[in-house]
Specification:
The structure holds three protein chains of three kinds.
Chain A: E1 7-16, E2 19-29, E3 34-38, H1 45-52, E4 62-70, E5 73-74, H2 82-88, E6 89-92, H3 103-113, H4 121-131, H5 135-138, H6 151-164, E7 169-173, H7 181-194, E8 199-204, H8 207-213, E9 216-221, E10 224-230, H9 231-236, H10 241-247
Parallel strand pairs in A: 3-8, 3-9, 6-7, 7-8
Antiparallel strand pairs in A: 1-2, 1-4, 4-5, 9-10
Chain B: H1 5-38, H2 44-48, E1 51-52, E2 57-58, H3 61-92, H4 97-111, H5 114-128, H6 135-159, H7 163-171, H8 176-205, H9 208-211, H10 231-240, H11 245-277
Antiparallel strand pairs in B: 1-2
Helix pairs in contact in B: 1-11, 3-6, 3-8, 4-6, 5-6, 6-8, 7-8, 8-11, 10-11
Chain C: H1 3-39, H2 41-46, E1 50-51, E2 56-57, H3 60-91, H4 94-105, H5 112-130, H6 138-148, H7 150-162, H8 166-174, H9 179-190, H10 192-208, H11 211-217, H12 234-241, H13 247-277
Antiparallel strand pairs in C: 1-2
The chains are: A alpha/beta, B mainly alpha, C mainly alpha.
Chain lengths: 252, 278, 278
């Protein structure tokens, strides 16, 4: 019995001024899977993430067509409450971007402003740090500036910060692009443990990471969806020649 | 005969250095003279004693109070207006005819000479609104004078806040105003403080505006509607009417070192800020 | 508060500077224009007969004095200021520049009354003893203003010189030009519009300065025939008489303000136009 998809995208097109970043993309993403998005630079991966939590609203002169749903919620309707949508769909950026506050403040900023009772916040922060496998490293200095953490720690803090918001979906935009292999491994392990509770979309231009860490994969090229399927199938018997070229490193 | 370019270069560069040295010399002579003639008379008593006999003897207490009172009022009025303008310009609008008009207005306001501001404050606050020569009239007119300084520095400070902070806040489900209030403004605070400090410095030294809006009463102002003589106005009257050269020098020393101190601190803060974001 | 509500509130704050400028313009013209029209603009602007008690209001002499004093200030301030800017931007080692630039900017923090005071103490006797005349003179005012406009000229010129890309300098040096030739033929022309803006804004500062000029210019009500004559500028005319003027006399002072305001606005608009063309 097939569950209804967590996220459904129907014929989505997106333009920055004259540049078309997405061209009639349709995708269904299941609950509790790690879904990989791969493709060369400017293929539309990051744009797709920005549409899913409506960060695209901030771009001047952008235009979109098509539909996208989170459960039954019409994501792109003008009257959708963007703030509560963004609490349900968290985003981790490629560059580690802690806010210039303490580690603890980074974690509790969003839940506090969302109206969580103050006495729940410390437990929430601890749980998020543990889930992001950062707790042991920072538990004694929660009130130090987050800017003093190393790059890998900062990125796990950004992940923890998103988890503390208790979203349903986590979007990761090349979360390990600037990190060393050990930090990368830690983040990938964390993702694997998180998928029982979250739906995760992982954007990466590192095909090995996609192969290691995801359940299903979509390949985007110049704004078009070329192929989507089980990760093992896409990487072993790709249906499209361009996917084959990409994963075997012939371009991109 | 043409001079060798190297020789003429040496001559010209020496001349430029000499002119620069001359300019520095003017500055040094001014500061040294005011210090030598004025500082020895400056003491705790001088600052805390009220002036006697039109300022011929006694201290400058009432003028210190009037200066602080009027400057404080000006800053309290101008800061929300200036910071609000800066937030509107940087966070809420794209470049348009409206932002161009607002920026142009601030630029022009910065160029309006203080005597014109004095005339304006005199007719609007002193006469039409009936505030009289008072702390209130003086403070409000000074607020208009320092508004462009606060707008410009706040706008630069807010623009210097990294764009990623905003993206992160939005993706954490913060509203635009929460993003500004919780993250953008606190990050821009040192820059905004710099602007406020420069405004204080500018207010301390102002004379023409206050002569016609705050008046020159030597009593210590208590109510907003009392007239008050600031240090700069007091110094002007002491010097111009030849009341007391030693007290004029001492007042000038207090005035000048307060302003230089504040400006130096503002400059230091700005340098630290620029290092942090670069 | 809703997001739209915050945006509207900020827009109101953002209109404060433009609003102030509009109010200033309105009140100065409202108070001053009737007298100009009543006296006849030609008579008001070109007559040199100012006798408020006899109902004669001609500001010709003051316009001439303001113009000559300002030009005098430029003759001193522009070469000195440009020399400092060129030295700091092009020839000074980086460390030295980091010290000298804020030091020279301190000149801007010294209140204008202090400049006037020191002008009276040093410059006026110097002129009286060595060049003759009363000492309080057009020349004294021009020299003091020349110094006072230095910070404006130096800081804007430095910024525009520093904005010239190093590529230009390298290109010229690679062709065998000396450093001075590079500055003279490449850097200065490239920074021209910024330097012109600096000069125009310095001019605005000189035209609008009041307190220092009152103290050293002598304030005599006649057309100057020599640099050593005492003069009264537009700004000092307002400041000297506003304290006790009433009725038509007060209107005439606002009318003087109108003329000053128009001159300043023309300078500001020109500076803005020059900057925009860049």
């Amino acid at each position: 019995m097939e569950q209804p998809p967590k996220i459904r995208i129907d014929g989505l097109s997106f333009w920055y001024k004259d540049f078309q970043a997405l061209d009639r993309v349709s995708l269904a993403i299941r609950a509790n899977e790690i879904f990989g998005l791969m493709g060369p630079a400017k293929s539309g991966k990051s744009t797709l993430l920005k549409v899913l939590n409506r960060l695209c609203d901030l771009l001047p002169e952008a235009r979109l067509e098509g539909k996208a749903y989170l459960d039954d919620l019409d994501l792109l309707a003008p009257d959708t409450d963007v703030v509560s949508l963004r609490r349900r769909v968290g985003l981790v950026l490629s560059k580690p971007t802690p806010l210039p506050r303490s580690i603890y403040e980074n974690l509790v900023l969003a839940p506090r402003l969302a109206g969580r009772p103050h006495k729940e916040l410390p437990a929430l922060a601890e749980e998020a740090l543990k889930a992001a496998r950062l707790w042991d490293e920072v538990k004694d200095r929660l009130h130090d500036s987050a800017l003093r953490l190393s790059g890998g720690q900062q990125q796990r803090l950004c992940l923890a910060r998103t988890l503390a918001m208790q979203p349903e979906v986590i979007l990761l935009d090349e979360p390990t692009s600037g990190l060393d292999p050990i930090s990368t491994a830690k983040i990938e392990e964390t993702l694997f443990q998180l998928k029982s509770r979250y739906t995760i979309i992982l954007v990466s231009n590192n095909t090995k990471q996609i192969a290691r860490a995801t359940d299903r994969t979509a390949f985007l090229l110049m704004g078009r969806l070329i192929e989507v399927g089980e990760t093992s199938q896409v990487f072993t018997v790709p249906r499209d020649q361009r996917t084959d070229d990409y994963i075997s490193g012939r371009f991109g | 005969m043409r001079l060798d370019p190297r020789v003429s270069q040496a001559v010209i560069i020496s001349a430029l250095w000499a002119l620069t040295g001359f300019t520095l010399l003017i500055l040094i002579v001014i500061i040294v003279n005011i210090s030598v003639e004025g500082l020895p008379r400056v003491s705790w008593t001088f600052l805390t004693q009220p002036p006697h006999d039109m300022g011929r003897s006694g201290g400058i207490f009432s003028t210190v109070v009037a200066t602080a009172y009027i400057t404080f009022l000006a800053i309290v009025v101008a800061t929300p207006l200036g910071v609000g303008t800066a937030i509107y310009l940087t966070e809420y609008t794209r470049e348009s005819w409206l932002t161009r008009i607002i920026r142009f207005g601030a630029e022009c306001l910065a160029g309006v000479p203080s005597i014109i501001l004095g005339l304006f404050g005199f007719v609007l606050f002193v006469l039409k609104l009936g505030f009289g020569w008072s702390v209130l009239s003086g403070g409000l007119t000074l607020a208009i004078m320092v508004l462009p300084i606060i707008i410009r520095t706040s706008e630069e400070a807010i623009k210097a806040v990294p764009e990623e902070y905003r993206v992160v806040c939005y993706s954490l489900g913060l509203s635009q105003w929460q993003t500004i209030a919780k993250i953008v403004l606190p990050s821009a605070l040192p820059g905004i403080t710099t602007g406020v400090m420069l405004s204080v410095g500018r207010s301390l030294g102002e004379t023409a505006v206050l002569l016609f809006t705050a008046g020159a009463a030597l009593r210590t102002p208590v109510s907003l509607f009392d007239s008050g003589r600031t240090m700069a106005v007091h110094f002007y009257i002491l010097a111009r009417e030849g009341i007391s050269l030693p007290n004029a020098y001492a007042t000038a020393a207090v005035l000048m070192f307060s302003i230089l101190g504040i400006n130096l601190a503002a400059y230091g803060l700005m340098q630290r800020l620029m290092r942090r974001f670069s | 508060m809703t997001s739209k509500g915050i945006e509207r509130l900020l827009l109101v704050l953002a209109l404060s500077s433009v609003g102030s400028l509009a109010l200033i313009t309105f009140f100065i013209f409202w108070e001053g224009l009737p007298l100009i029209l009543g006296t006849g603009p030609g008579d008001f602007l070109f007559s040199t007969h100012w006798a408020p008690t006899k109902g004669r209001f001609g500001i010709g002499a003051m316009i001439v004095s303001s113009v000559v004093v300002t030009l005098g200030a430029l003759v001193l301030g522009v070469p000195l200021g440009l020399a400092c800017a060129i030295v700091l931007a092009e020839f000074a080692p980086k460390r030295l520049k980091q010290v000298l630039k804020p030091t020279l900017e301190l000149l801007a923090g010294i209140p204008s009354v202090v400049y006037g005071f020191l002008g009276v103490l040093w410059l006026v006797p110097l002129i009286r003893e060595h060049l003759g005349g009363p000492g309080l003179s057009l020349l004294a005012a021009a020299v003091i203003l020349g110094i006072m406009i230095l910070p404006t000229i130096i800081s804007i010129s430095i910024d525009s010189l520093s904005a010239v890309p190093d590529l230009y300098r390298d290109g010229s040096l690679a062709l065998g030009a000396t450093r001075w030739q590079t500055v003279q033929r490449v850097v200065l022309p490239a920074a021209r519009s910024g330097i012109i803006t600096a000069i125009i804004l310095g001019m605005g500062r000189a035209v609008g300065e009041t307190m220092a000029v009152i103290m050293v210019a002598g304030n005599a009500l006649k057309l100057p025939t020599s640099l050593l004559d005492p003069v009264r500028t537009l700004t000092s005319n307002i400041a000297l008489e506003l304290g006790y003027a009433s009725g038509r006399h007060r209107e005439a002072l606002f009318a003087t303000g109108v003329v000053l305001f128009v001159i300043i606005m023309i300078l500001n608009l020109t500076a803005a136009a020059v900057t925009r063309r860049r």
